[in-house]
Write a structure and sequence with these properties.
235 residues; single chain
Length: 235
């Protein structure tokens, strides 16, 4: 599928699924529909909504710490370092944030996501001039820089996710819909131990299927996302 472009770093705490036939399944997706985002502008900015109480408890956050998170995020957002959504722009920023607010939380991990050249260019073009947020969400902004994926010894490959992107930068996973058996049968796919697809034999056909108006998914543009996670440093 050609070169892959960097889409962002994500701070994720996984949680067991509790619907369809996925009871208690852990999936290594960066989708905020499935897992808990330890950073998301939607709650980290001082003028946005409050964090859900259940997720607040899962992240081990106090009201005082949330105030500090919002001070940090407001500054970075006003500087233009951070855009809307939950994709962070570089390793220094995501590492600083985790070290400042989640240093003792080993279950919150840093993930990275990459889109093929075709998917990246499609996403950038689709959200050009969007009225809501002007298409200026972190995932799109990062892809526009066209930083090509490189072999990185501190990252481990988890698999391929299928993501449906909203105009504010959050995205669904194929796990949001009960179509896994259909995908596996139709495209000869198989899930790996991370709950993602290890290999995508027919990316063009899959894109066409997911973006068809008759598809049983959210009516947003869908893309194939290569997902990785930073390894835990050995002590």
């Amino acid at each position: 599928m050609g070169p892959y472009y960097f889409g962002g770093y994500f701070l994720i705490k996984t949680k067991p699924l509790s619907y369809f036939s996925f009871q208690n399944k852990i999936v290594q997706t960066c989708s905020s529909c499935i897992n808990i985002c330890a950073f998301d502008v939607e709650w980290c900015l001082s003028w946005t909504q409050n964090l859900d109480n259940e997720e607040k408890a899962e992240l081990g956050l106090t009201d005082e710490k949330i105030v500090e998170i919002r001070k940090w995020t407001d500054q970075k957002f006003n500087e233009g370092t951070i855009k809307w959504g939950h994709a962070l722009p570089d390793l220094q920023t995501v590492s600083t944030f985790k070290g400042s607010f989640y240093a003792d939380k080993d279950d919150i991990r840093i993930y990275s996501m990459y889109l093929s050249k075709m998917d990246a260019e499609s996403l950038i073009a689709y959200f050009e001039g969007e009225r809501t947020f002007q298409g200026l969400f972190g995932l799109r902004e990062n892809l526009q820089k066209k930083f090509e994926e490189k072999d990185n010894p501190i990252e481990e490959f988890l698999g391929y996710d299928f993501i449906g992107v909203e105009n504010h930068g959050s995205f669904h996973s194929f796990y949001c819909h009960n179509i896994i058996d259909e995908l596996i049968d139709k495209f000869s796919l198989s899930l790996n131990q991370h709950g993602l697809f290890h290999h995508i034999p027919n990316p063009g056909l899959i894109r066409e299927y997911l973006n068809d108006k008759s598809a049983r998914v959210e009516p947003v543009p869908w893309y194939i996302a290569k997902t990785k996670r930073l390894k835990i440093a050995s002590s």
